[in-house]
């Protein structure tokens, strides 16, 4: 049995792509036994950019430490296997549209009748109610609908909105929410004996990530109301997205134009980021550059004053030129000596060999049975009494089917028949 705070917990995972698999991977890192249910061809992420048959880097990165049980869930015999397993299961995680689980006999009502104290996570794009409940959804759509995309303010060369491309932010955030929710529900069950239905959505996660912007506070939101009145007027006039997004970001872009304290700078050989958010740190930034430009610390700071803003842009350009005159390493050492929080702008591909990552045991080395050695980002947290541990690489498709189906009580002849008919694989 695996070690960790969830050692002894058994999870059935009916999920694919990112959010559900990430959530269940966190549970596996915490020591839970996670059985991933896949169709005979494998979940779609196995097939996305395959580097060998049935294996992709994206799948391997999101499904480590799990078991693979292949079932053709549309068949009654496959559903019967699930129902026979449920008494030994603590958690079910699912991410189908709200209408699909009942068709497959794996909805909460059906499962909870078999095991009343089951913890059942129902992850959807938009929630189980409302006009969008039955719509499919992916991270890019959640970014768009929630306001994350507009908040980012990127534009493609063709004038269309630019998405957040560095990560599937709503998906990965929802994965954390799933693991957090399961842990809390297990604690509740430990106290009361009760299971429960948990609902997570990409929409709610994405909105939470911009909760300050989404929040409505009349006492503080006069500028916001003016901005949105202008944005809505431009929409009604069928203005270009460029015009709409310029109106939406007019104030924040003006703020950035006067900002030397919390931002990135180009250097002679790369770039750095500075994070100074207090008057004390602002003074240290000015001393380190050095500059007498106050920016946000100026008592006459006024973004509505065109003359002040124009002068601020000139002074910011001077500071930017100063940073271009030295290398990243020089600036990092110099800023550290002056007490300014700063760091280089790195590439993710370099970070698992970075001394800071290595010192904190972030890289984990694994051996996959088909693709060989790999290094992955380890568990997202550390616990002193119940340490988390990567339980192994991602599973080969169907590697655990025979053992798990046998555990459900099927005879060798029954198992052979199910294999022959393609119901298990």
3D architecture notes:
The chain is an alpha/beta fold and 425 residues long. Helices cover 44% and strands 14% of the residues. The protein has 21 helices and 13 strands. The protein has a six-stranded parallel β-sheet with strand order 5-2-1-6-7-8, with helices on both faces. Strand 9 (262-266) and strand 10 form a beta hairpin. Helix 1 crosses helix 9 (169-192), helix 7 crosses helix 10 (202-209) and helix 9 (169-192) crosses helix 10. The two termini are 25 Å apart.
Question: What is the secondary structure topology, with strand pairs?
Answer:
Elements: E1 10-14, H1 19-29, E2 33-38, H2 44-47, E3 50-52, E4 55-56, H3 57-62, E5 67-70, H4 76-85, E6 91-94, H5 100-104, H6 108-114, E7 119-124, H7 139-146, H8 148-152, H9 169-192, E8 196-201, H10 202-209, H11 211-214, H12 222-236, H13 241-248, H14 250-257, E9 262-266, E10 271-275, H15 279-288, H16 306-324, H17 328-337, E11 342-344, H18 348-351, H19 355-359, E12 363-368, E13 372-377, H20 401-407, H21 412-420
Parallel strand pairs: 1-2, 1-6, 2-5, 6-7, 7-8
Antiparallel strand pairs: 3-4, 9-10, 10-11, 12-13
Helix pairs in contact: 1-9, 7-10, 9-10, 12-13
């Amino acid at each position: 049995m695996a070690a960790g705070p969830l050692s002894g917990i058994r999870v059935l995972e009916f999920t694919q792509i990112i959010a559900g698999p990430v959530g269940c991977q966190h549970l596996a890192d915490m020591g839970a036994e996670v059985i991933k249910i896949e169709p005979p061809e494998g979940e779609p992420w196995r097939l996305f950019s395959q580097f060998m048959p049935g294996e992709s880097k994206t799948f391997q990165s999101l499904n480590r430490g799990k078991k693979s049980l292949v079932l053709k869930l549309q068949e009654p015999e496959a559903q019967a296997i699930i129902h026979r397993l449920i008494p030994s299961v603590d958690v079910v995680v699912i991410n189908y549209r709200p209408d699909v689980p009942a068709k497959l006999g794996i909805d909460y009502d059906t499962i909870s009748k078999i095991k009343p104290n089951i913890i059942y996570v129902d992850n959807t794009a938009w929630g189980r109610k409302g006009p969008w409940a039955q719509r499919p959804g992916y991270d890019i759509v959640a970014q768009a609908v929630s306001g994350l995309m507009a908040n980012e303010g990127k534009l493609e060369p063709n004038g269309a909105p630019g998405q957040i491309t560095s990560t599937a932010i709503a998906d990965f955030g929802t994965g954390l929410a799933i693991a957090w929710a399961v842990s809390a529900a297990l604690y509740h069950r430990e106290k009361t004996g009760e299971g429960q239905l948990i609902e997570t959505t990409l929409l709610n996660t994405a909105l939470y990530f911009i909760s300050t912007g989404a929040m409505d506070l009349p006492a503080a939101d006069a500028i916001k109301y003016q901005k949105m009145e202008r944005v809505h007027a431009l929409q009604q006039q069928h203005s270009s997205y460029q015009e709409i997004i310029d109106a939406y970001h007019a104030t924040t872009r003006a703020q950035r134009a006067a900002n030397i304290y919390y931002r990135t700078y180009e250097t002679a050989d790369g770039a750095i980021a500075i994070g100074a958010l207090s008057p004390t740190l602002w003074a240290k930034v000015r001393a380190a550059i050095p500059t007498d430009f106050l920016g946000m610390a100026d008592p006459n700071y006024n973004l509505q004053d065109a003359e002040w803003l124009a002068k601020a842009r000139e002074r910011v350009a001077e500071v930017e030129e100063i940073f271009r005159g030295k290398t990243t390493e020089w600036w990092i050492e110099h800023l550290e000596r002056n007490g300014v929080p700063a760091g280089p702008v790195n590439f993710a591909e370099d970070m698992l060999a970075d001394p800071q990552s290595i010192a904190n045991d972030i890289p984990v080395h694994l051996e996959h049975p088909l693709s060989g050695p790999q290094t992955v980002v380890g568990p997202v947290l550390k616990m002193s009494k119940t340490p988390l541990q990567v339980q192994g690489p991602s599973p080969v498709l169907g590697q655990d089917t025979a053992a798990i189906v046998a555990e459900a009580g099927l005879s060798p002849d029954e198992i052979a028949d199910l294999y022959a008919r393609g119901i298990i694989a």
